[in-house]
């Protein structure tokens, strides 16, 4: 009987260890971003093989609805977050790639100004510590890139 208990304990213990390391901590977003609280949904995904990166574009409900509708104009109240990770090999699946180190978070929020015109606020943060990027040289190009993304087809 004691032998049976030891075997069951060992089996149960190994089952608990099978989940060890399943959280991809390298790709986790810093708590300071409070990303989950934003309630964003996935708009689309992309992979850049040349740079070895993968990105997910998230949006609030209005941004997602406008993207699905194929709206050409930017509307006040839209919010997007483009999160980019370096790719890494998946130790659990031969040949697969998964997100690695966090590379950047780009955020866009739109709002109507006093005249009713839509104003776009763009923020670019880099690295695990989400350091703000002060260089604005490519902001217009990045904003256009994000708005030009087509939503993934979802059931």
Write the layout of secondary structure elements.
Blueprint lengths: L1 H16 L17 H4 L2 E8 L4 E7 L1 H9 L9 E11 L7 E16 L5 E9 L4 E2 L6 H9 L8
Antiparallel strand pairs: 1-2, 2-3, 3-4, 4-5, 5-6
Please tell me about this protein's structure:
The protein has about 160 residues and is α+β, with helices and mostly antiparallel strands. It has one domain. Helix content is about 25%, strand content about 35%. It is globular.
What is the compact description of this entry?
Helices cover 25% and strands 34% of the residues.
User: What is the N-to-C order of secondary-structure elements (H for helix, E for strand)?
Assistant: HHEEHEEEEH
Strands ordered across the widest β-sheet: 1-2-3-4-5-6
What oligomeric state do the depicted chains represent?
single chain
Report the portion of residues in β strands: 25-35%
Helix coverage percent: 10-25%
Overall number of strands: 6
Quickly list its features.
155 residues; alpha+beta; six-stranded antiparallel sheet; 4 helices; 25% helix; disordered N terminus
């Amino acid at each position: 009987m004691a032998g049976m208990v030891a075997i069951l304990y060992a089996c149960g213990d190994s089952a608990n260890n099978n989940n060890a390391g399943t959280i991809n901590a390298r790709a986790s977003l810093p708590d300071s971003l409070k990303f989950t609280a934003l309630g964003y949904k996935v708009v689309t995904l992309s992979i850049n093989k040349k740079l070895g990166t993968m990105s997910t574009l998230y949006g609030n409900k209005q941004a997602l609805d406008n993207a699905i509708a194929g709206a050409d104009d930017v509307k006040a109240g839209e919010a997007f977050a483009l999160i980019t990770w370096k790719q890494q090999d998946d130790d659990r699946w031969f040949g697969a790639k998964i997100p690695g180190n966090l590379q950047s978070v780009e955020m866009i929020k739109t709002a109507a100004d006093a005249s009713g015109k839509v104003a776009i606020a763009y923020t670019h943060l880099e690295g695990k510590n989400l350091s703000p990027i002060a260089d604005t040289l490519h902001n217009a190009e990045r904003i256009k890139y994000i708005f030009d993304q087509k939503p993934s087809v979802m059931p």
